[in-house]
Design brief:
By secondary structure, the protein is an alpha/beta fold. 21% of the residues lie in helices and 34% in strands. The strands form four sheets. Strands 4-3-7-1-2-6-5 form a seven-stranded antiparallel sheet.
């Protein structure tokens, strides 16, 4: 019989990151959580959604208000209960001999990048971060990353913070420099597709986080199936090579009903 770890704990702290994202710290040291994994957060009577882990102690998630469930999650107050299960999914891995990594986050995809940079820093591995957003108000976690990374570079579509353009204006020269041992990215899939392709062309190891609509998170329902793989257990972290081999990656996405649509 399958058994899944389930927890209910208190909300320790709620931080407003920007106009639609809040960070929630939970009174729990989820010791076995690894960067790149996720938890399934449950709101009784409303629903359940996967959330990337931004830290293990205290367990931290950052939630964008994009729907009914996420709206209920960010309405939680300090001292209230939050229920969840996990951690689930594959984690980011660091190749042996790695000395310097590049972590890239688009929008709230930056959340697991902080977790990864913090853990690798403790192992003596240097991180450079690139954070992208549509405007300055869409950038989150910049200060947090500054505490664990050697350098944090910002890009915005309108030029209101950092360099004008998408993340590739900073990422491309870094990948081509020959000074990056491995690349990690989470964010919009077309962004990850561009990064994965650039890394493949430069023969730089790269890992991405492939997201699809998840209902169970443990490989039972099949809602996150892609070309015979399940994003919840075969991912969400995949090598750039494996992700680029998927027919949908960077080309199509699915809505909550599982309908595939072009980007």
């Amino acid at each position: 019989m399958l058994q899944f770890p389930f927890f209910t704990n208190k909300v320790l702290k709620v931080v407003e990151e920007n106009y639609r994202v809040k960070t929630i710290e939970i009174d729990h040291d989820l010791k076995n959580a690894r960067p790149g994994q996720f938890i399934m957060v449950w709101i009784p009577g409303v629903g359940e959604r996967p959330m990337s882990i931004g830290n293990s102690d205290p367990l931290t998630i950052s939630v964008a208000n994009v729907g009914t469930v996420s709206g209920k999650i960010i309405s939680l107050k300090e001292g209230e209960n939050i229920s969840y299960r996990g951690p689930f999914g594959k984690e980011f891995t660091i190749p042996k001999g790695t000395k310097r990594i590049l972590v890239i986050g688009g929008g709230y995809g930056v959340v697991p990048m902080f977790f990864l940079a913090r853990e690798t820093r403790e192992k003596g591995i240097e991180s450079i971060a690139v954070v992208g957003g549509r405007t300055e108000k869409d950038i989150i976690y910049g200060k947090r990353l500054g505490r664990v990374c050697k350098e944090v570079l910002l890009t915005t579509d309108d030029g209101s913070a950092g360099k004008k353009g998408n993340v590739m204006v900073e990422v491309t020269p870094l990948i081509e420099s020959g000074k990056i041992d491995a690349v990690y990215c989470v964010g919009p899939e077309r962004m990850m597709y561009a990064i994965a392709t650039a890394c493949k062309n430069q023969n730089v190891p790269c890992q991405v986080s492939v997201e699809r609509y998840m209902k169970c998170g443990v490989g039972i329902c099949g809602s996150c199936a892609i070309d015979g793989k399940l994003a919840c257990i075969d991912g969400p972290v995949m090598s750039a090579k494996d992700a680029l081999a998927l027919s949908e990656f960077g080309k199509k996405h699915r809505d909550a009903c599982g309908i595939s649509k072009d980007y």
